[in-house]
Specification:
The longest helix is centred in the middle third of the chain and has 30 residues, at about 345-370. By secondary structure, this protein is an alpha+beta fold. It contains 17 helices and 11 strands.
């Protein structure tokens, strides 16, 4: 790498930037795909058509059965279980109650039998593959004894040795991944509290790869990888130095919230990527000269509008970012109007830009939002007044979020989020005594705690110098963060995720000023090493890796960091 103060600073990417950006993306990409999820889940289901429907599976000989392992489908079901030795007389054993969707579960039965019957207590419920185990924990070969049980035994090779997040949904995947599948299958959507775009994106790999954890987590993971390229470009635009662009990319790659939140099949990955892209293109518009070509300005504004529209069509939180974009645009518009040197050229462009912005930031986002509801118009809005139903759903969404009264052990108030005090515990695996397997959403403490200092420093700079780059970052942070101060419903640490990239850029600005003031370039390298070392230390807690509980104890730095 070049020395920090060598040569003229540039904000455009050169060959060195492409190499560094590619390395960050490649290394993180490899790590992010490790144990992302299985490709081998069952894709055929016994779907009950009526209450009391019965399906029977059989063993070659009578055996002592300790448990049933089964795979659930898109909707829950309850089944009465009966056992028989002759397929004539069946004795009641108990109930099988599905508690998750698209997940493996075990039900103990401890019975001696040859035939096992499942009697549905309701229609329109699903079971995928079924497997039986003897007292030694060995999987037994089974066959179907009734035709409708064929789909319970046709993918025996896909039954996992262990149940884990690798082969089953966890946390809010039971809503978002499930709804992605339902949109694909053109059935009624279970999750309607957020707009559909994120789930539609999630459904693309499901179409090609089937309904399995790798498929429904793939697009979110790719979005997380894409964020690294975006923050690199944005940092190069802001700081005009490859060193700080590399630092920004490394810090985001080493952040635990970014890693965890983009590897789970929820829509937050798409929200954050779209927000980052919309802000990148708005900044590139702001960088355009007053007397520059209007076509270049319009391209940046068009792309900013496209991506903020996509953000809002993913999650309403994207509208907070839209407010920040509006502030940036109109402040910049005012400054351009006061620039007497290029006033004549700028005045010729004003009408085109104003009209275009109405199209780019109102008409196009509205169109994206409406188009994202195509699955609802095709399946659920089936009256003579589909747009009335659409508006009613928007009202339901608003009241769901505004009137939600609930308690949750991992909720936390907005003002604690930057301090990383109360993580959200997503997953706890069943592992041997003395070990844990867990996934917890929380930030890299080295980055987040120093990021608080970075934000405070940014506020100080804005009050002192009022520079464009500082205003831009602070506007992004405040617009995405402060609205949560006025939301009364319960909230979680992951709501801070959209602010994290901007917090990291504020931290990089602090590091840049300290480094260039002290003329000690090793500070940049030290920050990267500290952030990566912290990520490696917490990686087992971020990733679900099986580790000794003694190691987990070492990672509990604060009382509310509950990992086991």
């Amino acid at each position: 790498m070049q020395r920090l103060q060598s040569g003229k600073k540039k904000d455009t990417l050169d060959q060195t930037d492409l190499v560094w950006m590619g390395l960050i993306v490649l290394i993180y990409g490899i790590v992010s795909f490790i144990n992302l999820g299985s490709l081998d889940n069952p894709n055929t289901f016994w779907e009950t058509e009526s209450e009391g429907e019965n399906a029977v599976v059989s063993l070659a000989d009578k055996a002592n059965i300790s448990k049933i392992r089964y795979y659930t489908g898109p909707r829950f079901g309850i089944y009465e279980i009966y056992g028989s030795e002759d397929n004539v007389t069946f004795n009641y054993i108990g109930e099988l109650k599905e508690s998750k969707v698209f997940a493996w579960e075990d039900t103990p039965i401890n019975q001696s039998l040859r035939y096992l019957s499942f009697k549905a207590k309701e229609s329109d419920s699903f079971i995928g593959e079924v497997s039986l185990y003897n007292e030694q924990g060995e999987k037994l070969a089974i066959d179907f004894a009734t035709d409708n049980a064929n789909r319970l035994v046709d993918e025996a090779q896909k039954v996992p040795e262990e149940i884990s997040y690798l082969n089953s949904t966890y946390f809010d995947e039971v809503y978002h991944a499930r709804t992605a599948y339902e949109h694909l299958m053109k059935t009624e959507a279970y999750e309607w509290t957020h707009p559909p775009l994120g789930k539609l994106i999630m459904s693309i790999p499901i179409y090609f790869l089937g309904m399995n954890p790798f498929a429904y987590r793939l697009m979110g993971n790719l979005a997380g990888i894409g964020m690294l390229a975006v923050i690199y470009i944005l940092a190069k635009r802001l700081f005009e130095d490859t060193h700080y662009a590399v630092l920004a990319g490394v810090l985001l790659a080493a952040d635990g919230m970014h890693f965890v939140q983009t590897r789970i099949a929820t829509v937050d990955s798409f929200l954050v990527l779209f927000l980052m892209l919309s802000y990148l293109f708005m900044y590139q518009y702001i960088q355009c000269k007053d007397n520059g070509e209007v076509s270049k300005k319009l391209i940046h504004l068009f792309l900013s509008g496209i991506f903020i529209g996509a953000a809002i069509a993913t999650k309403w939180n994207g509208a907070y970012g839209a407010v920040g974009l509006a502030v940036m645009f109109f402040v910049n518009f005012y400054k351009r109007c006061r620039n007497k040197y290029h006033n004549y050229i700028w005045k010729k462009q004003i009408a085109v830009i104003i009209i275009s912005c109405f199209v780019f930031f109102v008409v196009i986002p509205l169109g994206i939002y409406l188009l994202s509801y195509k699955p609802f118009f095709e399946v659920e809005f089936n009256s003579n007044e589909p747009f009335r139903e659409f508006l009613e759903l928007q009202k339901r969404m608003y009241h769901y979020h505004a009137d939600l009264e609930a308690a949750h052990p991992f909720s936390s108030p907005w003002y604690l989020w930057p301090l990383d005090i109360k993580p959200v515990w997503y997953y706890k695996g069943e592992v041997p005594e003395g070990f844990i397997s867990t996934i917890v959403a929380f930030g890299n403490p080295v980055i987040w705690w120093s990021g608080v200092v970075g934000i405070l420093y940014l506020i100080k700079r804005v009050l002192q110098y009022w520079e464009r780059e500082d205003q831009y970052l602070l506007t992004g942070i405040l617009s995405l963060y402060l609205p949560y101060a006025f939301i009364p419903r319960i909230m979680f640490l992951y709501h801070y995720f959209p602010i994290v990239p901007f917090m990291i850029l504020a931290l990089v600005k602090l590091i840049q000023d300290v480094t260039e003031t002290t003329q000690k370039p090793y500070i940049v390298k030290g920050c990267k090493i500290a952030a990566v070392a912290s990520f490696v230390f917490f990686y087992p807690i971020y990733s679900g890796m099986r580790i000794p509980i003694d190691y987990a104890v070492l990672t509990r730095w604060l009382p509310m960091w509950q990992f086991y």
